Amino acid sequence: MGTAVVAEACRRVGVEKVVYASSAAVYGEPKYLPIDEGHPTEPLSPYGLSKLVGELVLRQYA
Fold first, then answer.
1. One of 20, 27, 32, 47 is an active-site residue; which one?
2. DSSP letters of 5-40?
3. Calpha distance 56→32 (Å, rounded)
4. Per-domain residue ranges for the chain?
5. Both ends of the chain: CA-CA distance in Å?
6. What pLDDT was estimated at residue 1?
7. Is 20 a catalytic residue?
8. Do 41 and 29 meet the contact criterion of CB atoms below 8 Å apart?
9. Residues 3 and 56 sit within 8 Å (Cβ to Cβ)
10. pLDDT at residue 20, rounded to an integer
11. Burial of 17 (C-beta count, 10 Å sphere; 0-12/13-18/19+)
12. Kindly report the CA angle at 21 between 10 and 61, in degrees rounded to 5?
């Protein structure tokens, strides 16, 4: 996955901060509004799932 490759390259060269553009698609059907970062993640599409996986990969490098 591209996000993991970029994260590993950043780690190797000492990059300390990365900005990742995710999407509200990681939340799926809203359980409440407004959606906040504490909302459960239940992506409904491959796009939303790929964004969620990217977030999870980057958490391993945080």
1. 47
2. HHHHHHHHHT---------GGGS-S-SSSS--TTSP
3. 23
4. 2-59
5. 18
6. 74
7. no
8. no
9. no
10. 97
11. exposed
12. 35
pLDDT one digit per residue (tens) for the chain, 62 residues = 799 999 999 999 999 999 999 999 999 999 999 999 999 999 999 999 999 999 999 999 98
Give the residue carrying structure tokens 């990969």: 57
The Cα 10–Cα 19 span in angstroms is 12
**What is the amino acid identity at position 33?**
L
Phi, psi dihedrals of residue 48, rounded to the nearest 5° = -60, -40
pTM of the entire predicted model:
0.88
Tokens of 56: 């999870």
Q: Which two tokens stand for residue 59?
A: 């958490």
